[in-house]
Amino acid sequence: MKLTYSNLKPRPRVLKAVTGIGLKEFALLITPFSNAWEIHNRKWTLEGKTRQRNFKFRENNSFQSIEDMMIFILYHYKAKPTQELLGVTFNLTQPKASLWISTLEPILMQSLKKLNLVPVRDSAALNHELVESVTVILDGSERPVRRPKYDQKEFFSGKKRGTR
Fold it and tell me: What is the overall mean pLDDT for the chain?
């Protein structure tokens, strides 16, 4: 089964498993994604050259709809398969899969920025986001630490736990 929107729409659980988002979130994201794609596509070809004529979906196109393109890039982010496997899944060659990834990544990021859904990467931006939000959940999980070879006092109590 080729991963297309028409195949996945009637099966929302599979859509969520493949893309990481549900049907409602997909519908919310498709409008800005479509707008960003149209803006990009008016000016540039898939190879990054200036477009000479208008783009239209043809029968032999890699993707038959904008939804299929979004499923492709979301599947890439969710599963992180190799480009070879991604190409097999979407009936593309590896170089074509690489071209589509490099084309659709900035378009997805523009769409997420438009919806204010881009994850923050530095502490200053995180502080700004936390000030505006009401609920804060911190993960305080303990993680095992290997004790150092020298100056162990801080990490090791001195008790030995023998197994007999």
Answer: 83
The b-or-e profile of 131-156 (16+ CB within 10 A means b, else e) is eeeeeeeeeeeeeeeeeeeeeeeeee
* Nearest C-alpha neighbor of 37 from the set 72, 7, 4, 3: 72
User: How many CB atoms sit inside 10 A of residue 108's CB?
Assistant: 20
Contact 44, 52 (CB under 8 A): no
Rounded to whole angstroms, how far apart are CA atoms 161 and 164?
9
Q: What residues form DSSP beta bridges with 50?
A: 44
Tens-digit pLDDT profile for residues 102-150: 999 999 999 999 988 887 778 787 777 777 666 666 777 777 777 667 7
CB count within 10 Å of CB 128 equals 11
**Structure-token pair, residue 152:** 């162990």
88 to 70, 73, 81, 82, 101: CA distances (angstroms): 17, 14, 11, 10, 14
Compute the distance between CA of residue 80 and CA of residue 60 in angstroms, rounded to an integer.
Answer: 26
